Amino acid sequence: MTKPKLILIGAGGHARSCIDVIEQHGYFQIAGLVGLPEQRYAEDSDYGYAVIGTDGDLFNLAQIYQYALITIGQIQSSEHRIQLYQQAKQFGFQFPTIIAPTAYVSNHSTLGAGTIVMHGAIVNAGASVGNNCIINSCALIEHDARVEDHCHISTGAILNGDVTVGAGSFIGSGSVIKQGVAVGKNCMVGMSLGVRHNLADSVQFRGYDKT
CB atoms < 10 A from the CB of 32, how many? Predict the structure, then answer.
């Protein structure tokens, strides 16, 4: 059976992690990557997928390919990921949900369009994850937690039960959000931190290590 073709919008380090998950997921064939002008038509030295265009080529690529995934990373700001997602959606791309075969996603949870769940991550019962999110390797989204659109829950981060993370926020590697805490929109929580109280919108939290 012919696999549907998928283009990856972003050609950096996060894209490489996504490539591995997509290959093991097995449903899509990667048609190529969208990257910077200097990357165009160059072969990825590790994975062999061509950079077939830049952001300016998305309209034309949408006439050829049906599916796309945003594969640029997100730490300081979600703005670029949101912009690319909205632009590609306007051009008619569809965004699949990609789940690594080594991840666990409960049948009683929901994942939005364009979200990728990386190796070893867990999305537990009653949890919901919005569109265009990254649930990175070994992250834990516990029961009834809610992650809104365009968030990055980084490697090994833990969202305990009933946590809410607002749209566009980043939770750093190894950080733990206490049960029931609400993190606002466009927040940035640093690495290896404990968040015990609600955070307002646009807060950059670099508090004390949880140890």
Answer: 19
